[in-house]
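Input structure tokens:
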């Protein structure tokens, strides 16, 4: 049986964007397979804006979230396996879900 987490994250992300909110994820950078810019994590975690306006080529499969974004003006490829997502929430009001 597949995990429900990818489906919930995609649903929350869609609901937030439909509601003109900005979806963010808190990611455990120490999980296997996570690719994020070096030096930006704090205490092994990073918050990423995953909105369609902040990302390029965002893809949310049943295994990972991938996209391109600029950090410090430099384009970066981001890979976030779903097991590394600790929470998804709206920046504006904190509405979301812990995993």
């Amino acid at each position: 049986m597949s995990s429900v987490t990818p489906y919930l994250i995609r649903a929350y992300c869609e609901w937030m964007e439909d509601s003109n909110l900005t979806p963010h994820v808190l990611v455990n950078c120490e999980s296997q397979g996570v690719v994020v810019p070096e030096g930006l994590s704090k205490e092994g975690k990073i918050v990423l804006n995953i909105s369609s306006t902040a990302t390029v080529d965002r893809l949310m499969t049943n295994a990972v979230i991938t996209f391109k974004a600029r950090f410090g003006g430099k384009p970066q490829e981001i890979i976030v396996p779903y097991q590394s997502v600790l929470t998804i929430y709206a920046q504006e009001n904190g509405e979301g879900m812990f995993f």
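DSSP finds one helix and seven strands in the chain. Residues 10 and 60 are 7 Å apart (CA to CA).
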